[in-house]
Specification:
With 526 residues, the protein is mainly β. The protein contains no helices and 39 strands.
């Protein structure tokens, strides 16, 4: 998670973002970076030709290349020559710049203005890099002409558009075309026509409409696969998948521009163990830990304890902190994962003896306990560490765990039904644990979201919320308890007490009593 956004991976599916917009306002949207990451540069003779440099276009391949699963793919194309164009419909609108270099006739570029419009269109230049724009020439009517600035051996950027206060009405379509140089643009495939033609939406303006072999395809798509894990680590969003891991730009969770210079640029790495080593999960501990097919099942859990300090440090003890040598580490985190058999739980923790992370088997004394196979795990920290392991048969094994006290205790939870999932939410004295339970009630299959009772509610003084899917009645004395339609036909237990004249134990403490078992009929018991 990152603030109000949680990033969600799923092997074989495009990533999502769960966004919290307000207390009761949420959205689930596609995660769609617009600048990468990209595969290696094309080395084949296949050219890609865009039909236009902006807007909705087609991409045409010189040979069969596209597949229907390319819909959603990014393509980055570098043009031969530079073409920029813009439909100018208001003041303070300009084309992207072109970069002009060379000598004599090499510097000539073409200017085109067409359309029906009333305005003043201005050509501007900036020396060395775009930014400080100076007027060159103005037009108030359509034109096609060639411009030669005569500034041999200088790098000059040019753009054309309408300055503030110079627009009256209409649309002026202005273009600059230069035979040399290159512009790199990005488009996303939106539709499949054939193996040689796809529809695309331009995300970053292209530089021309001639075919180019200088292109790269995006890393992620239905054709190439999607990440199977995610982690936030050292200011980057990491997306492992197959045998590779992609890290975003520093503090830019949707930025993968590989032209970004310096330490802040994105990171792309392969674990180098072959495609069989699919990365199933990532844990952001003192280091970024990746679980692969050769050492784990695709199940892992990590939670940062609220009491864990955050340490800011450089790479070495004697090195000062700096913008390029600054690391934040959680000092007391641990990861839990399941091995490839899906039956053994392991703790991944830092070992002071080896100065590295190592895995310890938490099923060592009960190796066959989870023979049904673990399908989901969640960690609860309060009132103590409990690891809830949902098993394939709908039962749950819970590990009570305290490394400092050398406590490793397993217990099994079963109910009249099957547990399909578990979630843990923050709490003060105790955290809130929820199970999704599939039950057969009155001949119908239902699924209930059931919250664990707190320990303070299970003492019997006087409350005892031990019964699964229980209903709590509070009111005047009665012999009929309604509100039980969710347990129609089930045999239930009843625990009760009288608030006016409570039962008491020998020490005078108010207590409740087991009032027996009853069968729910018509949504109530008597």
């Amino acid at each position: 998670p990152s603030g109000d956004v949680t990033y969600v991976p799923c092997e074989g599916r495009q990533q999502r973002k769960i966004e919290r917009r307000a207390a009761r306002s949420w959205s689930v949207v596609l995660y769609q970076p617009e600048d990468g990451p990209f595969r290696a540069l094309n080395t084949t003779p296949i050219t890609l030709t865009p039909s236009a440099v902006s807007g909705d276009i087609t991409l045409t391949a010189s040979k069969a290349y596209f597949k229907s699963t390319n819909v959603g793919s990014l393509f980055r194309l570098a043009s031969t020559g530079q073409l920029v164009t813009a439909s100018l419909t208001a003041a303070d609108q300009f084309t992207d710049p072109i970069r002009v270099a060379g000598i004599e006739n090499q510097r000539k570029f073409q200017i085109t203005i067409r359309g029906v419009w009333t305005a003043t269109v201005t050509l501007q230049y900036s020396v060395g890099e775009p930014g400080s724009w100076v007027d060159v020439k103005d037009w108030t009517a359509n034109t096609t002409e060639t411009h030669d600035d005569g500034l041999d051996n200088q790098i000059i950027f040019y753009r054309i558009g309408i300055k503030a206060g110079d627009y009256t009405s209409g649309t002026a379509v202005a273009s600059l075309s230069f035979a040399s140089g290159s512009i790199t643009g990005i488009a996303r495939v939106t539709g499949y026509t054939s193996a040689t033609v796809v529809n695309a939406a331009v995300l970053k303006n292209l530089g021309g409409t001639t075919g180019t072999t200088d292109w790269s395809e995006g890393v992620w798509s239905d054709r190439r696969g999607w990440p199977s894990a995610v982690a936030l680590f050292e200011g980057r969003l990491w997306w492992p998948g197959k045998d590779k891991v992609q890290g975003s730009e520093s503090d830019g969770y949707e930025d993968f521009d590989d032209e970004t210079q310096g330490d802040a640029g994105p990171i792309s790495r392969s674990i180098g163990e072959g495609p069989v080593d699919t990365i199933h999960w990532a844990l952001a501990l003192g280091r970024l830990i990746l679980g692969t097919a050769s050492n784990s099942a695709p199940i892992a859990a990590l939670r940062i304890d609220g009491n864990s300090p955050v340490v800011a440090r450089s790479d070495s003890v004697d090195e000062p902190l700096s913008p390029t040598n600054f690391n934040l580490k959680f000092a007391s985190t641990r990861g839990i994962f399941v091995d490839t058999s899906a039956t053994r739980l392991f703790e991944l923790a830092f070992d002071v003896n080896t100065s590295d992370y190592k895995a310890d088997d938490l099923n060592l004394v009960v190796p066959d306990l989870n023979v049904a196979g673990i399908v989901h795990i969640e960690i609860q920290y309060k009132p103590d560490i409990r690891i809830h392991c949902v098993r394939a048969d709908g039962t749950v094994a819970i590990l009570i765990f305290d490394r400092a006290e050398n406590v490793i205790c397993w217990l099994e939870y079963e109910t009249d039904g099957e547990v399909g999932g578990v979630s843990v939410l923050p709490g003060t004295v105790e955290e809130q644990v929820y199970y999704v339970v599939k039950r057969t009630i009155n001949g119908a299959t239902v699924r209930y979201l059931e919250k664990w009772a707190l320990e303070s509610e299970c003492t019997g003084f006087p409350e005892a919320h031990h019964a699964d899917a229980f209903y709590r009645y509070s009111g005047t004395a009665t012999t009929t308890i309604p509100g039980l339609s969710h347990l129609e036909g089930e045999t239930v237990v009843v625990w009760g007490w009288n608030t006016d004249t409570p039962f008491t134990d020998q020490d005078g403490n108010a207590i409740g009593l087991d009032l027996g078992t009853f069968t729910v009929s018509g949504g109530q018991i008597t």
